[in-house]
Amino acid sequence: MLKVSLQSLRTSLHDGGVSSAYINRLMAELDDHYADLEREARASGSERPAAAVEALRRLGQQDAIAAAVLAKPELRSWSHRWPWLAGLMSHVLLLLLLPVTPIVACAQRGPAILRWSVSISLGTAMTGGFLLVMAQSIFATL
Amino acid sequence: MGQSNPPFMSGVPELLVLRLLARKTMYGYELVKAVRIVTGEAIALGEGVIYPALHGLEKNGALKASRKPVNGRTRVYYSVTPKGQRRLDRLTQEWDRVSSGVRSALGQAERA
Predict the structure, then answer these.
(1) Under a CB-based contact definition with an 8 Å cutoff, are residues A54 and A41 in contact?
(2) Which parts of chain B sit beneath pLDDT 50?
(3) Which residues pair with B80 in a beta bridge?
(4) How far does the CA of residue B104 sit from the closest CA of chain A (Å)?
(5) What is the tens place of the pLDDT at every residue in B68-88?
(6) Interatomic CA distance for residues A64 and A83, integer angstroms
(7) Complex prediction ipTM
(8) Looking at chain B, which residue has its C-alpha nearest residue A40?
(9) Which chain B residues have any C-beta within 8 angstroms of a chain A C-beta?
(10) Which residue segments constitute the domains of chain B, with CATH numbers given?
(11) pTM as predicted
């Protein structure tokens, strides 16, 4: 039930640039806390629905929890804390990917590329040979 | 030259959390209960906001979190690190300085 109730908190944190790993950890701890609060309310005589309402009330408003997380930059993902660094790294990675991609492709599709190269070379050699024969026969008639 | 005041109420939960965790390793629910007891429920916050405070202190190296399985669930216990202890000492000194200043001001206001 709590997981459903805290969906808007999860969305707010995600939109605010908090990493999924941290959100999952926070949700797990809130879930555990909620279970303790609900058990405490039931132990003091509340029925299950009333205990659930009381537990959610004591856990606090989701907006307040989200604001407390977002007020701490150290809890946000590094790409939201240093967007310029994330942009720079994505460009560097793309630049590295350009020369690496053909090498990786050759390594993975080696036999196919070899067959293709041999076929092209044979085709070129045969065409060149025909052209040479034709040129020789033309020169012989002159 | 006097030192500048630290953030007033915003520093209090941190001081309380560090003070209580310096005494005993606790998990979130246990810690909130302890805060309520030691402050005579003078400080009432939504209990969920304790976790961002704990996680921030952990990220800054003032607290250490350890996971323990309890009744089929994994519970996160927090304890104060040496860095956290130094921070607690500093915050306690700040609080003593500010509160004695406020007490003095209140005493003077009463006499005036």
Answers:
(1) yes
(2) 1-8
(3) B63
(4) 33
(5) 998 888 899 999 999 999 999
(6) 26
(7) 0.80
(8) B29
(9) 27-29, 32, 45-49, 51-53, 55-56, 59-60, 73-76
(10) 9-111 (1.10.10.10)
(11) 0.71
